[in-house]
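pipeline stage [seq->struct] | target=Protein kinase domain-containing protein | organism=Sorangium cellulosum | residues=804
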Amino acid sequence: MSEEGFLPGTILAGRYQVRRELGRGGMGVVYLCRDLVIDERVAVKLLDRPGAAARPEDAWWFQEEARALAGLSHPALVKARDFGALSNGTPYLVMDAVPGRSLHEWLYLARLEDPLPWTIIWSVIDQVLGALAHAHARGVIHGDLKPSNVLVDLQHGGEPPLVHVLDLGLAWLIQDRIDHRLDGSRESEPTVRWGAGTPGWMAPEQIRFAAPHVGPPTDLYALGCILYALLAGGEVYDGTNDELLQQHRSSPIPDLPLPPEVPSDVAKFAKRLLAKRPWHRFDFAGDARRVWKRFEPRSDVNVTATPLPLALLTTGRLPPSRKELLTPELIEPPDDDPPPSVTTTGLLALRPSPFVARTGERARLMEVVAEMVDAPKAMHRFVLLAGEAGVGKSRLAEWLCEEVHERALMVPLRARYRRIAAPLDGVLGAVTQHYRLERAEREIVEKVLMNLWEVPPEDEVGKTWVAATAEWIKPSPPGSEAVGPTGKRFRLDRPELRWLIIRKTLERIGRDRPVLLWLDDLHYASSTTFEGLLTLHRDAPNLGLLVVATVRSEAVECDPVAAKRLEGALAAYGGERLDVAPLNPAQTHALLRETLPLDDAAAEAATARSKGNPLFALQLLHAWAGGGHLQLRAGKYFVPKASMAVQAATTADLWEERLAALPEELRTGARAAAALGGDIRREILRALLASLDIAADRAIAAMQRAQILLAVGDRLRWPHALLQEHLLSQLFLEPDAARVFRAAADALGAHPFASSRRILRHRVVSLLRAGDTDEAAALMHAHVAAHWQSSRDIAATLRDLAVL
């Protein structure tokens, strides 16, 4: 590409013919193009940094924008169509070409001519709130909302304007919604945009680099700035960039002059959006939209009508009406072929799996939600989603979380359980993700909780609860005497104390609305988890709690202990079980056509071979795409007859491919690493490998290159728990397995937290696997004796002894 860009008529990526340049910025240029395959107008954005050398991280940021857009589908959000790289390696992103002028242009015209009418302003803000609610519910925070990123196309005949929110290039992605079982890819960490944004439209928490506080209220602050500009004709503050940052961080909010036709309460609404502290704004975009609906211009309503109560405009929450709680219409896909999706294989690995069918299950879940939200007092409900692996239980639960978040009905928390537990499994992981504390140090955890819970320095009781919760989220190292901002030290040495902290934390989270607690693969949970659920049901009558658990029916049938625990929880809560059945052929066909525009033969083949299992159908589609078997013809993808028999790679096949990338002499090292658990310290793995006469540094480097292990600071982790599980199962079959497990126990003995219960149990299990029963028993008995002197925790002691 020349410095002047591509000339009209140039064909990009073999299908996008350039018409003209639409605009360019510091990171890219956008062209209006014609998609020659389907004969439609599209916008093609190319990564381009004029006058600067390309950096590897630029392509990654560009891909993150594509990932953000690919997971969204809302009328007021521009849609992604394709993603890839040109022949010279330049990344490109194809989106819908949408009409209209930016709000920046409309504001300029308003200063020269007439300001925008109140009816237009109201509709623009309402549509943007709807777009934000949709994005936030799917873990996407725009992060750079400003007038130039909102297109408005005025309509004739009194119709509302068409509004589109653009440019997610600086979006924060706080949730990974991709099903990594489809292609074996690793989970993505939350995308943090340190210091990114535009002065004049950035929220104070962005300016302060307060990452845990960046969330839905961050975008609402920017929308408050836009609303102020639309009504006042100018920005909230004036000055240089440095002055703007300082004023948005700490200056008082100026009064908002309102045109005569605007309801007076709009000024209070705008002031709440512009609150300096994010916890003083609305928690959800849906909350703000519910209040904004009260200002809708109608010919039968006078602007001097009865105002809303002040508390609802400044601090409170307007509850949903009964009409709003009615179950949305859920239409079953038609029997005939649905229209194919307008997407490409370039987005296949970036898009969450489409959600089709499940009409009855969705309706029942929303009935339960409506019952709880409309109830005069808090209530508990338990719904168990059961079905075979890959049938779509988790996708159904995920849909419910998105629905209640987008409509601001409940606070969704996502907890998962795995055969091999990871540090952030269970309710701990759900709460940590909710507060966005995954990467936070202990001091930051306490600061964030004191802010959100508004605990003043003189509140000793409040600070004690903060210290206790911080100890649960980020435990102090053994022997540490350090204290955080609370000035308190707290020791969680009894399970009942831990569940008291969990209850108090959930009550804080659910202070304004019920909590939806999604427990994924609950059959893997320990007895302690089930005891905790019963404790919550007994001791938290003021907490609105909907527990939605997913279980694999075949796993429960093979585990009578798990089955008994699940039956006990259902009975205690008076819960219900929903069996999630395989899809019928029409539904599977709709799923495939929603994923990619397949031709009939390919869709029918995948439908027949998957036998109604959505995971199997999508795995086959990914196998065709990943193997280069999909060919585009007349806007549809078809599979040559010779490729129809391609088998979808199972996850085991994918892991074996990665293992095969290692030299033969290093593969034993990968299996040995699996004996160290899910969170591996580099020095511990190095010691283990050295004791097995394996070149440690060479093996670790090779495992990282093959993406068998990923580096996270001074630690190493598995890209997927199933990979560790696969290697561990292989290790059991090795003739020298006992030697490896014994070496793992010895290596863990040098762990900095070797005396902690978690590491010691791991050592004991490794010794048992090695057949060293006496040594394992002696180690555990010494641990029990030492801890009994300090805590005398009977339940913990019994669990320790149960390991033997």
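stage status: PASS
auto-comment: The chain has five domains: 11-96, 101-318, 329-354+583-647, 355-579, 651-802. Residues 333-338 have pLDDT under 50 and may be disordered.
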